[in-house]
Design brief:
The complex is a heterodimer of chains A (111) and B (146). With 111 residues, chain A is of the alpha/beta class. Chain A is built from five helices and five strands; from the N terminus they run αββαβαβαβα. Classes of the chains: A alpha/beta (111), B alpha+beta (146). The structure holds adenosine-5'-triphosphate (ATP) and magnesium ion. Magnesium ion binds next to helix 2 of chain B.
Chain lengths: 111, 146
């Protein structure tokens, strides 16, 4: 499924790198621990987190993730957005919790 | 595909403790170099993650450090040395889940105690040396051809 389709179904808001919305997603990974994401997420996953600081961009880019969904109405910091544009990392936001977001994605991808 | 590396390529980066904003810069540049050489994506990713974890530890725990890489047609060797507090018990530090990261670093999502295990898992050879009060050096080798 394309990231854009998922974003539409979940009413996600785009915070950076709109071009990345055309990318395909291979699944999702939910975690707020950065080294855990680097160890256990899979290439092409969309990453669900409440972290908003600049280091999330490097994690997503180095691990080859499809994008980041920041949950709980949190907004990425301005320097995070700037870095994400430079590194071509798509960041989306939602008012829903990680639990709700992961649950919805699980349902969408397994039907 | 065999990487197109003519001769040996090396480079180094200065790392500054506490500089979270530029964290990942060295790993990103290394990744771009390996990409130019046509190295396999999965191998590039392993090198990038191992390097990033090493970078982060210098930024979190040390005052300053240096990352040096050396690429040959066979492998990439990465050496990350820092002037930091050193590690008293390396065996303990290598255990997944062990962390001395302060609270404010944990709030950023670092401090899972998974960085050193990630470096080891993603490299073909891994070695760490440390002298308390002097610093720590991590050596990693990643083969470029399976
Ligand atoms: N360069 C270093 N200098 C001093 N101590 C270090 C260094 N690298 C690691 N350590 C020590 O080893 C512990 C484990 O390191 P490791 O990278 O595995 O986990 P972490 O940094 O605590 O958390 P994570 O990497 O998952 O964010 C650290 O908490 C710290 O006590
Ligand atoms: Mg670490």
């Amino acid at each position: 499924m394309k990231l854009s389709e998922l974003a539409e179904k979940l009413s996600l808001k785009i915070a950076s790198h709109t071009e990345g919305m055309n990318g395909n997603i291979t699944g999702a990974y939910s975690s707020d621990l950065l080294s855990d994401v680097m160890a256990n997420s899979k290439v092409g996953n969309v990453w669900i987190t409440l972290q908003t600081h600049i280091n999330i961009v490097a994690v997503a880019s180095l691990k080859g993730l499809a994008g980041i969904i920041i949950v709980g109405n949190r907004q990425p910091q301005p320097e995070t957005i700037e870095k994400a544009e430079a590194e071509k990392v798509t960041i989306l936001t939602t008012s829903h919790t990680a639990y709700e977001t992961a649950g919805q994605i699980y349902q969408i991808l397994s039907t | 595909m065999t990487p197109e590396i003519n001769g040996n390529v090396e480079g180094s980066f200065q790392l500054i403790g506490g500089n979270f904003t530029n964290a990942g810069e060295a790993s990103t540049q290394l990744k771009m170099k390996l990409f130019e050489f046509g190295v396999d994506d999965a191998i590039i990713r392993r090198a990038a993650i191992a390097t990033f974890e090493a970078e982060m530890n210098v930024i979190i725990y040390a005052a300053a450090g240096q990352l040096h890489y050396y690429i040959t047609p066979e492998n990439i060797k990465i050496r990350v040395e820092d002037m930091g507090p050193g590690i008293e018990d390396i065996e303990q530090a290598m255990q997944e889940g062990y962390s001395t990261a302060p609270e404010w670093v944990r709030e950023m999502g670092w401090g899972a105690g998974m960085g050193l295990p990630n470096m080891k898992r993603n490299s073909d050879e891994f070695m760490i040396e440390s002298v308390v009060g002097e610093g720590t050096t991590v050596h990693m080798t990643i083969n470029l051809n399976e």
